[in-house]
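In the current project phase, we have settled on a layout for protein records. One protein thus recorded is set out beneath this paragraph:
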Amino acid sequence: MNYLFHTAKQSYEHFASGKVLYNAPGTTSFPVRLASEIVQRCFHLLREKGVSGPYHLYDPCCGGGYMLTVIGLLHHDRINRITASDQDQAMVKFAAQNLSLLRPDGLAKRKEQVRELFELYQKPSHMEALQSADYLMGLVEQSSALQLDCFQADSTVDNSRDERCRNAHIILTDLPYGGIVDWISGSASPVHDFFESMHKIASPASTVLAVIADKSQSLRHPKFKRLQVQKIGKRHFALFEPLA
């Protein structure tokens, strides 16, 4: 993997799922450094198109919202709106909880939950979580007010009439690929229909689509120009520009 922007390796222990960020059952934590790298590539492509921030970021297969929350914590200075949707209503609830951590009141509520656990059980892990909450609060307090939307939607159908899905500068998602997480859509060709759906809400002038998937899934579609593709471990990701 060739990192162009998030070049420095560092510890991401404060972002560990289940520590302060909520852990949605049946989901996996997306690598923090990779998420940061991909969104920064999107920022760069948008700037090259003459689209300056702050940006609207949308994840149409958000799962528990872990990746979006990490990006919001790390890059709040370049984002003014984060939108999340998923077909699984249970995941939407977890995503809403995680996104709430991007606001001081939501993070303070979570810190109080962890404090109560520490007072009850006196576990070192809870003390470490309190320290991580303080670290994350430092990030949140520096951020401007983010507009947050989280709702249930099927990413393989036409959602272009829903204003919450439209006008995103960056559409970024980790597609379901079996094993732990799989498609629950009724579509016979969910990846193809996903691209069709995204094309209906994307703007050729001001949208970049970033898709992460298992290597077995082909990341191509005739309505999108593929700008970059990169393999990393069992995954690959590609960045696209919608065609008019």
